[in-house]
């Protein structure tokens, strides 16, 4: 179905129940204003990404702290905005998709913040995108009570502060078209949430807050800042009301952390160490740069390997120098009904949070309500009565560009088990994503889009480099195809009827075994499988 709101805007896609409450003419018009103002710059920045990527791959260029922005790093006079209402204490942040049940559960989880996810944990079907907006709309207005399986769901008295995470700049939303062009998915997710909820949130003592994913440069942060300025002006909301926490989850952004905070300083709340996409970015950026950049099995790339420590140490010291919160990342372990597995998971999460708290982070992420208490306990002890650790300036930290790029420092090895694990988890996750679920529990771990990206990129890198396994066998396309057949058969036996394994396999083959390494599996898989709109 296709409905014309104005001469320029088309909404294509099924009209779900109450979708018209989100896709009002005024809201869609607001998206169109954002698109008109920023679509061109978005395209230019995506071109700049591509050019930089090619230059890095060909060795024409290397990564360094930018000489032209040294003045920003050397100017000690600037700080980011003061913490906004509801964001003063961020010791525990729960993340999760915006389906109805998870929305209520996350808000009631005891976490200080809920990252309402339209990104790594989203399968961007039209139903999920607009349904998620509806759930947020209802939850903010305390109008989301329901019953399911005999359990009452109702937002309690002290809910978490909502921080919405729109999709990244690389994605489009094909169901909203302006002059025939699909609109930036970032602008759709941001725009609809902001348009409908900013005033409500402010009236309730909170505000319109965002996590910004997958930025690759400070110029992309500048674009977001300009989006915020226009959006606030359009709705007559004072500039500086929005707060944004930027995920540092690409290697190029790690070289521009201070500049990113500077660009957004009027709206900046902090930086987050998005470890999974960071690993993905590291592999992708240097996939063709030779053996020195080949990472070992995914399970061996932990937060304690030197190049990952360099990144988190730099993040904390950069944030605290500028009065910004440093928020830790996601340990993938989730609670289990098996007491032994559960105890191990809780212990692993505890160790992860202890390391972050000791390093000076102001809070961290958990994937499940059952992990809120452990994160709370660890950070409460480290904070010692304060809402943050901004006072810990970490002047002792000195991280060089070489430290950030020292992939070889990870050591470790590549094994048959590691290759098979990547194939297996990628198939399972992509199957889930194609069926509309963007976060899944797989072998007692929380897996999302970043996992599948790491898994298929590692395979590509190992094949490209003819990497030798621990037993001396080289990783070849033929070997991977043989293991792919075997792993697909195993996975099929578990998934049963109605699975999308054949499609998942096709996506894996294209994105892990093709001649070129695609930037994201989500972009092509979205266009091919999640929408009929061409
Ligand atoms: C790389 C990154 O970007 S990390 C951030 C993105 N990823 C995420 O946000 C993933 C968040 N986590 C999840 O989605 C889920 O925890 C999963 C999919 C991993 C597991 O979910 P489930 O299989 O439902 O777990 P489980 O059965 O243990 O859930 C128990 C209860 O907790 C709820 N729950 C589990 N995780 C969450 C969550 N993150 N938010 C809110 N509620 C949750 C379930 O809805 C369920 O509620 P119920 O008792 O009312 O039915
Ligand atoms: O978004 C978080 C990450 O780790 O990736
Ligand atoms: Mg991420």
TrEMBL record:
Pfam families for the chain: MS_C, MS_N, MS_TIM-barrel
Entry EC number(s): 2.3.3.9
GO molecular function term, any single one: malate synthase activity
Catalytic activity: glyoxylate + acetyl-CoA + H2O = (S)-malate + CoA + H(+)
GO cellular component, one term: cytoplasm
Keywords recorded for this protein, A-Z: Glyoxylate bypass, Transferase, Tricarboxylic acid cycle
EC category name: transferase
Domain Malate synthase C-terminal: 414-527
Active site: 165 (proton acceptor), 448 (proton donor)
Domain spans labelled Malate synthase TIM barrel: 161-406
Recorded superkingdom: Bacteria
Domain Malate synthase N-terminal: 10-69
Keyword 4Fe-4S belongs to the record: no
Pathway, per record: Carbohydrate metabolism; glyoxylate cycle; (S)-malate from isocitrate: step 2/2
GO term, biological process aspect, one: glyoxylate cycle
Similarity-based family: Belongs to the malate synthase family.
Protein name: Malate synthase
Primary gene name: aceB
């Amino acid at each position: 179905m296709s409905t014309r709101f104005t001469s320029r805007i088309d909404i294509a896609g099924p009209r779900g129940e109450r979708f018209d409450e989100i896709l009002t003419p005024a809201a869609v018009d607001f998206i169109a204003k954002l698109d008109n103002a920023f679509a061109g710059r978005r395209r230019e920045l995506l071109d700049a990404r591509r050019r930089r990527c090619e230059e890095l791959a060909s060795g024409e260029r290397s990564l360094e702290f930018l000489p032209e922005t040294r003045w920003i790093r050397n100017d000690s006079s600037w700080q980011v905005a003061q913490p906004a209402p509801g964001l003063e204490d961020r010791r525990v942040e729960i993340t999760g998709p915006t389906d109805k049940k998870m929305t209520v559960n996350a808000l009631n989880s005891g976490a200080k913040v809920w990252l309402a996810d339209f990104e790594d944990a989203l399968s961007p079907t039209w139903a999920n995108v607009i349904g998620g907006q509806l759930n947020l709309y209802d939850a903010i207005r305390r109008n989301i009570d329901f019953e399911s399986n005999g359990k009452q769901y109702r937002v309690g008295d002290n809910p978490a502060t909502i921080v919405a995470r729109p999709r990244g700049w690389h994605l489009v939303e094909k169901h909203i078209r302006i002059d025939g062009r699909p609109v930036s998915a970032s602008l759709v997710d941001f725009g609809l949430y902001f348009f409908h909820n900013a005033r409500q949130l402010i009236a309730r003592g909170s505000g319109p807050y965002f996590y910004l994913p997958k930025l690759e440069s400070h110029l992309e942060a500048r674009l977001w800042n300009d989006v915020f300025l226009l959006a606030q002006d359009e709705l007559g909301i004072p500039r500086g009301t929005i707060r944004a926490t930027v995920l540092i989850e690409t290697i190029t952004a790690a070289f521009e952390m201070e500049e990113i905070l500077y660009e957004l300083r009027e709206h900046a709340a902090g930086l987050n160490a998005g470890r999974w996409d960071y690993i993905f970015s590291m592999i992708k950026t240097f996939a063709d740069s030779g053996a020195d950049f080949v990472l070992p099995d995914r399970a061996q790339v932990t937060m304690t390997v030197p190049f990952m420590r360099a990144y988190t140490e730099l993040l904390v010291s950069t944030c605290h120098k500028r009065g910004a919160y440093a928020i830790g990342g996601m340990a993938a372990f989730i609670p289990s009904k098996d007491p032994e597995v559960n105890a191990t998971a809780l212990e692993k999460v505890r160790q992860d949070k202890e390391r972050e708290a000791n390093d000076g982070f102001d809070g961290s992420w958990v994937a499940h309500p059952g992990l809120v208490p452990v994160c709370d306990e660890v950070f409460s002890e480290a904070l010692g009565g304060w809402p943050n650790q901004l006072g810990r300036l970490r002047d002792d930290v000195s991280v060089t560009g070489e430290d950030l790029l020292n992939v070889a420092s990870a050591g470790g090895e590549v094994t048959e088990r590691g290759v098979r694990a990547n194939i297996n988890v990628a198939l399972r996750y992509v199957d889930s994503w194609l069926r509309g679920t963007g976060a899944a529990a797989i072998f007692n771990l929380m897996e999302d889009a970043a996992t599948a990206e790491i898994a298929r990129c590692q395979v590509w890198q190992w094949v490209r480099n003819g990497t030798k396994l621990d037993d001396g066998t080289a990783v070849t396309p033929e070997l991977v195809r043989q293991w792919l057949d075997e792993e697909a058969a195993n996975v099929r036996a578990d998934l049963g009827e109605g699975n999308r394994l054949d499609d998942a396999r096709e996506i894996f083959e294209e994105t892990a075994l093709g001649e070129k390494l695609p930037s994201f599996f989500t972009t092509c898989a979205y266009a091919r499988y999640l929408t009929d709109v061409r």
